[in-house]
Amino acid sequence: MKPTMISSTVRRKPRARLPLAGVIGGVIVTFWLVMAVIGPYIAPHDVGGVAGDAVFAPISAQYPLGTDYLGRDMLSRVLHGAPYTIGVALAAVIIASFGGTALALFAAASGGWFDTIVSRIVDVKLSIPSKLLALIMIAAFGSSVPVLILTAGVGYMPGAYRISRALAVNVQAMDYVQAARSRGEGLAYIMFYEMLPNMLRPVLADLGLRFLFIVLLLSGMSFLGLGVQPPEADWGSLVRENIIGLSEGAPAVIVPALAIATLTIAVNMVIDGFAGRKRRGG
Fold first, then answer.
1. Residue 4 lies in a domain
2. What transmembrane ranges does the database entry give (predicted)?
């Protein structure tokens, strides 16, 4: 008799697949993150260096992105502006999302008077528009990178708190959280080992959205002349200072606007793909 052949094929667990739009968005976001790190080092000219006499020069081999209203190379200006646009937004969103999520976890897990007081304070803060708060802060303390980071972070923390608290309230009522309480686990363990992992996906999606909001807020403040100050520049200030070239279709005003647009659209594509991805065979 022939020995019975046992199949060695192992059924693998389906993997989550990111849609094509999410992959494309991830590539673009990764590109801009890399440029935020190495951009100033690979820029052909200094941030304020005048490359030539040509004002609002068109795209050419010498000036791949044209020149601005003073004859400065726009490629260099965009590369030097990437750390400010992206870096300041990242620092602010870390304050907003991490701070709001940690506070929401503690409030939902502890409950009682602390949860009530924090929630009412957040409600008051939500009644103040973020742009108005930014204008007040800059008028009081002046425009600097630390002030911009703190203003954007504090301004968007209440929204992150409300989203995270709504998730945390639902999660903390689950059986596994109640079992952890019955075992006598500490509050920190329940917050970060039982609750946070089960609400991480929507929290990360909200983090991406807050990053978009902060990029647009900072770009808007720079467009008003209240953001990063000369000689440094971010993409919003590049649009503002070259706005007179808009009637001529100068690349100097179009390029930084496209940089902001590609970054925000790409982040949105990643968020949509991350939130809506399906499992193969599911």
1. no
2. 20-42, 48-65, 86-114, 134-157, 207-229, 249-271
